[in-house]
Amino acid sequence: MHRRPEIEVQLAAVRERIRAAGGDPERIAVVAVTKGRPLEDCRAALEVGLTRLGENRVAEALPKLEALPAAEWHLVGHLQSNKARDAAGRFALIHSVDSLRLAEAIARRAPEQVVLLQVNTSREPQKQGLAPEAVLEALRAARSLLPVRGLMCMAAAVGDPAPAFAELRRLRDQCEQALGIALPILSMGMTQDYEAAVRAGSTMLRLGRVLFDR
Questions:
Q1: What pLDDT does 2 receive?
Q2: How far apart are CA 170 and CA 200, in angstroms?
Q3: pLDDT in tens, 43-70
Q4: Do 15 and 29 form a contact (C-beta atoms < 8 A)?
Q5: Which of these, 155, 180, 178, 177, lies nearest to 168 by C-alpha position?
Q6: Full 3-state SS string of 2-55
Q7: SS3 205
């Protein structure tokens, strides 16, 4: 009894809003963030084609990974270095590598683990993430340890999210040019600001409430 037909309706509405913001819903990946959600919601997401599921905490995620191995699981929340051994090699993508120390801890356990570097583009002191001016050197070092596929950020909780997203896009382009590499993933945009992220060039959205809340 895990059928949730409203998720299909809400996903259709999200795709329409992506299109209205100038994005292509077929090319922008949606990670359905299932933190705090029961397995029934995870299964319902899979049923409507939301195969990428995101969790914030490793301890909550691991039982879900075991129950639903067909999903492509992403870790989107903060990961402490001392928890890296529990996460490394278990997720299709870790979005939140915010220090070289964490990259090293992951690489010791699973050097094949695909990651993104998290950048504090809103420059809020309470937020995790690399300082924008440190990204290029951090990327240069992290790439010698792990497959780095792009960058992630969170916009400020209040105010215009567009500058933080534009900064991540600029940093990605700068790093690609400086290092001669491809960084295809820009993970930016959540329920409250995903349309602004689409306009800034997001390739991956992390959406929870807009998909699951009735």
A1: 53
A2: 10
A3: 999 999 999 999 999 999 999 999 999 9
A4: no
A5: 155
A6: CCCHHHHHHHHHHHHHHHHCCCCCCCCEEEEECCCCCHHHHHHHHHCCCCEEEE
A7: strand
Q: In the predicted model, what is the mean pLDDT of the chain?
A: 96
Strands (E), the chain: 29-33, 52-55, 72-75, 93-97, 115-118, 148-152, 185-187, 204-207
Tokens of 96: 């939140």
Tokens of residue 212, six digits: 């699951």
The answer to whether the CB of 122 falls within 8 A of the CB of 160 is: no
Distance CA 14, CA 18 (A): 6
Secondary structure of residue 173 in the 3-state scheme: helix
Cα 70 to Cα 160: distance, rounded to the nearest angstrom = 37
CA distance readout (Å), 149 to 109, 112, 156, 200: 19, 12, 24, 18
**Residue the block writes with tokens 């700068």:** 174
pLDDT, residue 1, reads 43
Instruction: Return the structure tokens found at 14.
Output: 């999200």
Our measurement of the distance from residue 14's CA atom to the centroid of its chain's CA atoms, rounded to an integer in Å, reads 17
* Residue 106 exposure: Cα atoms within 13 Å on the Cβ side: 33
3-class secondary-structure state, position 150: strand
pTM of the model: 0.96
Amino acid, res. 27 = R
Q: Report the C-alpha gap between 65 and 6 in whole angstroms.
A: 24
